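Reopening this one. Same input as before:
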Amino acid sequence: MKTTRQTLLLLAMLMCCTAAWADHAPRTTALFNTNWRFHAGDAAGAERTDYDDSQWRTIDLPHDFQIEQPWVAPAADERADNSDPGANIRSRLSGRGFKEMGKGWYRKTFVPADSLRGRRILLDFEGIMLTGDVYLNGERVGGTDYGYVGFEVDVSSRIRWGEENVVAVLADTQQPQNSRWYTGGGLFRNVWLVATAADLHFERHPLYIRTRENRYVDITAEFTNHGRERSVQLVCTLTDPTGKTVYADTISHHRNTPSRTVEARIDSIEVAQPQLWDTEHPNLYTATIRLLRPDGSIADEAQAQFGIRTIEFGPEYGLKLNGKKLLLKGYANHHTLGSLGAAAYPRAMEKRIRLMKQFGINHIRTSHNPYSRSFIELCDRYGILVVDELYDKWTRQHTGGRTPWEHHWQYDVTEWVKRDRNSPSVILWSLGNELQQAPNQAYNDWGVTAYKLQRTLLQRYDTTRLVTVAMHPRYRNWETDSLPCDLAMETDIQAYNYRYMYFPGDGRRFPWMTFYQSEASVAAMGENYFAMNLDKVIGLAYWGAIDYLGESQGWPDKGWAQGVFDIALEPKPKAYYMKSMFLPDEPTVHIGVVEKKGDIMWNGVQTGNDGMTDHWNRREGQSLTLVTYTNADEVELVLNGRSLGTRPNPTDAKHRCQIRWEGIAYEPGHIEAIARTNGKVVARHRMETTGEAVRLRITPEPVDDAHPHWTADGSDLLHLRIEAVDRKGRRVPTATPLVRITTDGNARIAAMGNGNMAGDDVSTTADSVHLHNGSALVILRAGTTAGSVIVTATADELKSATLRTATIGK
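Same output, byte for byte:
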């Protein structure tokens, strides 16, 4: 590190340069999200500048047009045989959430600031679902064939100065078969307007930051120099998690190749007393690189956060983080956000991450596509370990449907890896999922050549992480599952969906293999965790731990309903089973009442969960089966003060952390589970019979304790829990009234849902919602003006509820 005096002199020089260029910042990046015009469906000529869009809706991004569409019930000829009570009622739209496919047009008119003349102007799209085309002033200037990855368009030469310009975007969900799950549709992520110098500037995702030995930092910066000078100075500063500068230096880079785009390296920066990044202490450093002109002024600036940490994989220990064994305790879900659909709101992502951490989750697999950049940054901030996945299957059908996969994978891999490679949360790259179920892979060798090609390109941009593909079945088809498939012999990590029972045998045959259960069935929760050798495996990810739209297992369910959290983010009883496993040092006990037996096969795996609730409003004399989930030594069950016995926590893998109680005769009153360890009470869970619902209650659910307010930035969210309660303030689980929501102030309803996957109110953008299990979730979106917001909930025969809140300025 430079001396303190040198560092201060360098920073003072940069401050002077910045002040001198305040009217012409080296790089401006502005959100381009507000005041778009939207039209559902195709519209001939909508790309033209003279097209009349005055009757279109005005919307702000992010936006998912598909979530606004009505549900499409299966036609009679699409349904299964209803004479069988267990028949699965499916349709061509069951995978896509029973929403019709279609197109949507977006238009935005703007007049560029005159100060941007002579600058390099970029339109940066974080994604368009599922495919998209971008037009500027009637001319197609770019687009995407795989909307999960971003792209930018250089429009410098096409901007019309001093007059209106029109950006038009056509988004297309493609056909039902082009995804196996609900994708949403439209401009579902941010759009940015970026301006840089034209002659000397950084390229897209220009910084590549590596850490070594938990103290050294290496940085590569990619930039383009169209100027006459072959030598360029770069100023590098590093700041620690508190904002303190820990390194500052200037290097000179001389271009000695014909290429105008070059990579400058800054190697072996030693950080004294580094604050390491891990799951409990997600310390983030910031690297800032500035390109200087010969006169010392700043031409461009790039910045990225990173963490100082080491990751290791091996067959003897699975995974080590900073030299210590760590087990992945995770889940794998699709990218959507419940009743919000695919619209990528960072606050909604943050709520989910915080919720899952409370139940012991330390890992998320981004199935089966890149999530938004905001999501990865939140995982950096909260210490979540990510398996970052690019594709489902490597076919045209499964990667957008518009062009063959072979035509766009080179761009997809590059954009994906360069975008996320500096994030400490990302510990493993995954290139695909369950290729064995789509045997028509390119090159006709079960994905081996395609994997090698992608891995080679990936390692051009990142060599610090290993690469895998999730396998299912483990061999080439369902009938021959005796040996690992050809691809499993090539991947760096052996990632098996559900087939954890093959880990021991494959490990003996191939002792170099390191195993990760990339999908685990929630229905087999417990056994598929405890039956693994936890000292040697990497860990697991429970599939669909949060219910989601799409991949319905039968109408009227609108999607996957086998999770341990419902789609409105209410924990089901089994969530506490997961918590008792994943947080063994945090005493837990929770009662679940079995309502129905789960018996659903999906993807060759038993996925059906027992339907369970956790309330004590029943029919008198009803015989009940109860399960107490616990990590204590034993549980005593007490009904209205009368002990029903004490039972030990089983120790075998299949039954550990769950105690079953059959034939419990219901009595009104209360039932309580008392958990003990070493004879001492460590946890309790009590359920009471409630009275009739008399009023509504609104409870705000803050996402971040450190920042409990929501911001008037146009996209921040406030989650509100609406409940029907009795005279004692207890939620009444049997109450299902229609609740009407009104708002007064600069906020609007973004979405509502009640968690009932079989009902029409599982997701709605209307102003009313039926309660389910006595509650519903209302999500408000902030406007752009700070001030008070009043929310009122009303229902017939119930006392209304009012909540006063306020948004604050940016």
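So the earlier flakiness isn't reproducible anymore. For the record, Residues 4-20 form the longest helix (17 residues).
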